Amino acid sequence: MTELKTKCLIIGSGPAGYTAAIYTSRANLNPIMYEGYQPGGQLTTTTEVENFPGYPEGITGPQLMDDLRAQALRFGTDIRSGIISEVNFDVHPLEAIADDGTRIIADTVIISTGATAKYLGLPDEQEFNGRGVSACATCDGFFYRKKRVAVVGGGDTACEEALYLSNLAAEVFMIVRKDHLRASKVMQRRVLDKSNIKVLFNTNTKGLYGDEVLEGAHLIEHMGTDRQREYDLPVDGFFLAIGHQPNTEVFSRFVKLDDTGYIKTEPDTTMTNIPGVFAAGDVADHRYRQAITAAGSGCKAALDAERYITEQE
Ligand code: NDP
After folding, report:
1. Are the C-beta atoms of residues 96 and 84 closer than 8 Å to each other?
2. Tens of pLDDT, residues 236-245
3. Engineering a disulfide at 161: which of 2, 137, 138, 183 sits with its beta carbon 3.0 to 4.6 angstroms away?
4. CB-side exposure of 34: number of CA atoms within 13 Å?
């Protein structure tokens, strides 16, 4: 079995991971990064990124990730493909096993494995992904100015996305499977008070349609009852907001998680409950979930790791 030793192991490669790699490399921590199955993370599935500072004309998600990766490589990050499938944080130095069997002994670990947006599981979602279907209103809402969009879900995220979109789109339809919203009262009120948001209660999505780009959704109202009614809702954008799944399963035996599975960090730091283990990006953030906030927390994690190593020495 191959064994590697490093001062810093970075697990996951979105904006948080690459930024942590740039900082830890420049601080001579000789980091090893495991990129995961989707190098670059969620941003590689978006098209234009127009809100990452420094790109006045915008940049595509994949290009932004390629640039961050190249910057990390320039300073010597050892970037490896594959995932970390097992960790042992009961020992110091910390241990991790990659899916190819490589064992990594690390003084510090930065977890930046991100979160995965949940999809309904309709085959059409993949077909129209990036051509009408999105799981991020802040990323893609701008392309739907003065158009009609739908948001699926009835939680706080769905309400936030619907409110955000209501300031851009002409009309927003919220597709809610129950007869009530799950979101907090204040968010519910804001949504219900907004004149261009229409909430479609007791409604499920059966499929999507369109020629090349999305043109609408096939909906079912009161599914499985004698009031069942099927109809088509013409929309240009279809936003999934049924929750995110933080990618924390591998660490859950060691690292403290909140009720929804996100890693808990000490206030104003990236420190987890395990000395030497830090968390950055969406894996520890259900609130902001932006590329720039993830990059910022990757920087913080690198500085926290560097400080930890100095203190240990
Ligand atoms: P939630 O799990 O709270 O809500 C998910 C919503 O999607 C629910 O309405 C659920 O319906 C619906 N849903 C789930 N699966 C399906 C499906 N297959 N088909 C149709 N609808 C489905 O997720 P959120 O992302 O909204 O929130 C996660 C956590 O983050 C919550 O604790 C929330 O309060 C918090 N949050 C806080 C914010 C803030 O404080 N500003 C902002 C955003 C999130 P149903 O109700 O029927 O189960």
Report:
1. yes
2. 999 999 988 9
3. 137
4. 25
| Ligand 1 mutation target, pool 116, 119, 157, 206, most atoms within 8 A of CB | 157
Average pLDDT over every residue of 12-25? 97
CATH superfamily of the domain spanning 119-240: FAD/NAD(P)-binding domain (3.50.50.60)
Of residues 140, 156, 282, 285, which has the active-site annotation? 140
Fold of 3-116+244-312: FAD/NAD(P)-binding domain (3.50.50)
pTM for the model:
0.78
The residue whose C-alpha atom lies closest to atom 14 belonging to ligand 1 is 242
Contacts of residue 84, Cβ cutoff 8 Å, sequence gap at least 6 = 9, 11, 34, 96, 97, 98, 99, 104, 250
Whether 136 is catalytic is yes
